[in-house]
Input
Amino acid sequence: MGADAGPKIVVDGAEITRVRCPDVRFLMFGDSSAVEPLLAAHPELQAVSEVRHTDNFVSMEDKPAQAIRKGRDTSMWHAIGAVQNGEADVVVSAGNTGALMAMAKIQLKTMAGVDRPAIAALWPTERGESVVLDVGANVDCDERQLVTFAIMGEAFARAVFGLKRPLVGVLNIGTEELKGNEAVKSAAQILQDADLPIKFYGFVEGDDIGAGTVDVVVTDGFTGNVALKTAEGTARLIAHYLSTAIRRSFFARIGYVLAAGAFNVLRTKMDPRSVNGGVFLGLNGLVVKSHGGTDELGMASAIELAHNMVSHDLVEKIEQDVQHIYGGEETSAPLPRAANDEVSA
Amino acid sequence: MGADAGPKIVVDGAEITRVRCPDVRFLMFGDSSAVEPLLAAHPELQAVSEVRHTDNFVSMEDKPAQAIRKGRDTSMWHAIGAVQNGEADVVVSAGNTGALMAMAKIQLKTMAGVDRPAIAALWPTERGESVVLDVGANVDCDERQLVTFAIMGEAFARAVFGLKRPLVGVLNIGTEELKGNEAVKSAAQILQDADLPIKFYGFVEGDDIGAGTVDVVVTDGFTGNVALKTAEGTARLIAHYLSTAIRRSFFARIGYVLAAGAFNVLRTKMDPRSVNGGVFLGLNGLVVKSHGGTDELGMASAIELAHNMVSHDLVEKIEQDVQHIYGGEETSAPLPRAANDEVSA
Output
């Protein structure tokens, strides 16, 4: 119920995923009088979906605390609950990020050894794709949190990108004598000195993200969120320049038509929908947050990313790594796992 | 002496500026045996330039503390000194940023009412140009510093962009309940509530920078530096996509030739050389830091930005604003001003 464009793009996105990943099944939480007719338009999707009616839903304007108060009867709460009780393997939502994180923490709980979960974003690079975390869950981060982000991001890169030894970097600036703040410097020191099974590159700067210098970029949620939004804004600025420049001349328009294939490749590469989906890492269960303003293609990307993480047992891999590294400082709550492939969207 | 490509691009850049801004005169600090022959190739430039020989110079590898130790005989030290003693109106350097800031602080001193100077960067936007500060001088910033950045950035936008009432925003993230860190929240509160002669927009996010939502973007030096470098990296990534896409097909190459004019416009717009030059604000004198890796066109942009700031009496305007707002908490050291237009590069 949380996408800006309403439940239709969620159902249509699920239909795209169904065709591409025939093993996926869906639990859909929301207003059944809105969802059922949309499903009826896709009989094959309907056959692998179950709608769970809720009277209420979280709006984009709700603060997390408000959402939680009205929460127990919302579609978001129940969708996360389906992961918690093992009915679903992963939850996908295009709704309110703060509410989703707050409800996920309450129901799924933070993984043993992890102080606070992070939001990881896929980032297109000159060499393929990298993962950047945190991009918005934690405004202030100490060195232990940053090191945990490195561990979780590394496990993500191994699982989702299929890399054996992903390269990890800590985002920093390179202009002053005493580079970076204390947290960044201490985290790098730990990653450098401690005997962690992580291939640590060292510090990277903002332009290294797009260059793909490392596979995993570690940063606090404030800086990561600003970097992500700044990159989006820069891509939009360039698209604006390009369309203005092409409209200006007749030959340019002819040229544009001839080069249409190239522009389509460019557009696909720059399409934020193709890398849609922030992943919550560090919880006892998988949560994917789609961009609220996405369409059915973006929703399908988010669901497929979710499917991909489930197929690679991402939660178990992260849990093992965190346990291995922090050596069971806390007791780990076993993660309930569903026997099937249901994705609750 | 500090540019990666050596003194030639500095002299050639000065020559470009001389043609465009005939009232500028130059003091050039460095190895005269290297600089004089370069000048000899441009007799008209030579006529308005004076070379001051120094045996030593700051290298890119020098830490600021090292640079200051060897400093008193370097070209960088003397070039800043020329602004301090009134021989020059502004200093332009493509050298080591940290050393330049450290030496500028010692010689020019921080302006009364300003805790720490900031580096301001011009940023191309969909609506023209904005100024973003700090982009690297101060890793941690409290609210008073951020408010001072707002005051200095606003004065810069009035002087350099010719705006009567520039719009000021504070860079923040928009995903969590308690947006931003304490410094950002307190700074916004002060800018909102205090009776400052500033048109305050409120918070902006990373994508608002390229959109040109505000004329002045206020941020700490860590976040600002990451944002700037991330934008550069994104522009490079898109250029990479574009050239790959065009090389892939014959029709695309033909189209590219027809649309060459449009691509040239795009290239000019995306050209980092056209907005080359970080400006140090908050000192009793003007310092422009050119990108070390720039060429003569970028150097000319930096010198012209310097010229532009001098013509608009930027230091006096900032000083008046800071004094007006902080009401003479400290005594202000009067700024020595040269009677001529000499630019020491």
Observations:
- DSSP finds 14 helices and eleven strands in chain B.
- Chain B touches chain A through 73 residues (CB under 8 Å).
- Chain B has two domains: 1-110+282-345, 115-278.
- The first strand of chain B starts at residue 25 and ends at 30.
